[in-house]
Amino acid sequence: MKVDMNGLSLKGLSGSSRDLLMANNFDPSVLRPYLADNGRSYINVMEDGKLKARPLNNVAATLRKDDWIMLDTAIVKAAKSRLNFVQDLRGSGLTFSIPGGMGKTVLQTESESDVNDATISMDALRDAPDDRPEYDLVNLPLPITHKDFTISLRQLAASRQGGSPFDVSMGELAARKVAEQVEKLALGTASTYTYGGGTIYGARNFTSTLTKVMTSPATSAWTGGTLINELLAARKQLTDAYHYGPYNIYCSPAWDQYLDNDFKTNSDKTLRNRILEIQSFNSVTTVDSLENYDILIIQMTSDVVRMVIGMEITTLQWETVGGLQQNFKVMCIMVPQVRADFNGNAGLLLGATA
Question: What is the pTM of this model?
């Protein structure tokens, strides 16, 4: 699994395929040719807001349209299963799309300072402070996350002549690896990525993320009430930083046995249920990428975190070794943008045991 910045490395990419990419403004759809029933090769492209089939005269497709449908369906399904946090952001509308993301390497945004409070007077003759916000430019790299796999032409021929469906298992595995890396990048459990004067941070490793020491549930003195009190204290830290919710809570898998147990002896609700009764806490979700007893509390607003999407998860295909090997690359441009205000206040908190 790789995250590359300086262009896409397509090993052995033939001249015609490379030229096709360049001639079409690096639109990845041109490297998704399919073989139609009439024996001709086509690609699907967007023209005037509609999806149209464009014939290719100099590129021989090896996959049929149904093969691409099977592969894409398997890849999207496998990817979504590993994107709990990213899917939450997208479901909350916390996204920013960049058309033609292949042609852009950095997103530039501004952070803005606050201004003084408004003045109250009876006749508006009293002078009010005349100030203006200050701005600071911030660069966000837009790398490509990708994973490769190959299928030999003989494997493909055996599949077709034997009447068995196109084997998409390698595509599923590649998609899971890409999705896992995107999820880790967004959560901040993967390493930061720096390019073009900017750095990609996730929720956990963002420099302005608040922190709180939590009590380990493995200690003898811990109870469900212990966690409730610490979550309330964490909420106070966030409101003191001028972020008032609503919040989503993300927990490591180690918390499941406690969250889904009775809140207290002879209780009729779980600890997870009890947390969701607290104002401003919208959800309690387990994410695989968090470790130990980590807990992330995040205000779900675009000024705190959003996913920047330059390309959805897609698959490219090209031939090498005289067409005997079919090369595939599952790839996307999906990066988190975690933000603080001009004064460094952020709406994220990491709770971790000592």
Answer: 0.81
Cα distance between residue 250 and residue 132, in whole Å: 37
Amino acid at 316: L
Strand order in the sheet with 2-4: 2-4, 144-152, 325-338, 305-320, 95-97
Amino acid code (one letter) for 354? A
Q: What is the 3-state secondary structure (H, E, C) of 192-259?
A: CEEECCEEECCCCCCCCCEEEEECCCCCCCCCHHHHHHHHHHHHHHHHHCCCCCCEEEEECHHHHHHH
Angle between helices 169-187 and 65-80 (to 10 degrees): 40
Q: What is the mean pLDDT of residues 137-153?
A: 89
Residue of 347, 346, 343 whose CA lies nearest to 115: 343
Report all structural domains of the chain as residue ranges with CATH numbers, in order of start. 2-104+139-200+306-338 (3.30.2400.20), 210-304+344-353 (3.30.2320.10)
270: which DSSP letter? Answer: B
Angle between helices 169-187 and 84-91 (to 10 degrees): 70
* Whole-angstrom distance, CA of residue 52 vs CA of residue 269: 54
Q: Using 50, 70 and 90 to split pLDDT, how confident is the model at 320?
A: confident
Give CA separation, 64 vs 41, 43, 67, 234, in Å: 9, 11, 5, 54
Contact predicate 293/353, CB 8 Å: yes
Instruction: Report the alpha-carbon distance of residue 209 to residue 203 in Å, rounded.
Output: 7
**pLDDT for the residue 8:** 47
Q: Please say whether the beta carbons of 258 and 295 come within 8 A.
A: no
- Among the listed residues 148, 143, 181, the one whose alpha carbon sits nearest the alpha carbon of residue 6: 143
Classify 339 as helix, strand or coil: coil
For residue 182, give every residue at least 6 positions away whose Cβ sits within 8 Å of its Cβ, in sequence order, or none.
83, 86, 145, 332, 334
User: Which residue from 77, 83, 85, 82 is spatially nearest to 172, judged by alpha carbons?
Assistant: 77
Tens of pLDDT, residues 222-231: 999 999 999 9
Query: How far is Cα 12 from Cα 328, in angstroms, rounded to an integer?
Result: 12
